[in-house]
Amino acid sequence: MLAKKLVTLGCAVGILACGACFLPPLHEPPPPPVRLDFEGIQRIRVEVSNNSESHHLDPNALASFIEVRINSQARLAGVKAFSQKDPASADADGVLHVTVLSETVAPARPESTGGGEPWDVQVSLSAVLTKKDAQVVWRESDGDYRFLRSLSRANAAAIWKGPAVRNLLGSETAWRLVNRMLNAQ
Q1: Range of the domain at 11
Q2: Number of domains present in the structure of the chain
Q3: Nearest-CA neighbor of 78 among 93, 98, 97?
């Protein structure tokens, strides 16, 4: 009986040692490859302007969100981004200029989202990535970025007043823009 217990204990220790506890940690899969040919651009200055009537999204904050997204998603392609306020952006060999055209928030159907008040958020923008010689590498005209969010606000005006919500909406917009750009859509 003791021999069976020792064999069982030895097997359990062997299983744990070989598979369950001592394997190296699993890594996240790498991001999908970048499809956009940057045509020699390695340093991108990100410039954002807000030409909407409401001016809810802060251009500097949106530029920073876009910079972070490009740096995290395009680093394997050898591309580095700098926001418009960064002094290092002065010697960039490419410029991504983003213009916010409109920003709207409207109540959504209650069954569209779960929890909180459902809101339909729509940001329309144009973006152009150019080289130093003004050659256009990528362009998006009147890009429509629409998403549903459950937000705990009573009306559309109150939504834009909360900095956390503005950051969430700016981050979401930047994420979608950079994905479209890097996938050459």
Answers
A1: 2-182
A2: 1
A3: 93
Q: Is 80 exceeded by the pLDDT of residue 154?
A: no
What are the residues whose beta carbons fall under 8 Å from the beta carbon of 163, sequence distance 6 or more? none
The rounded distance, in Å, linking the Cα atoms of 169 and 179 is 16
Concatenated DSSP letters for 127-177?
EEEEETT--EEEEEEEEEEEEEEEE--SSHHHHHH-HHHHHHHHHHHHHHH
Per 3-state DSSP, what percentage of the chain is helix, strand, and coil (rounded to 5)? 40, 30, 30
Please tell me the distance from the alpha carbon of residue 165 to that of residue 103, in angstroms, as a whole number: 13
pLDDT tens by residue, 59-118: 999 999 999 999 998 887 889 999 888 887 778 999 999 999 998 888 877 654 455 678
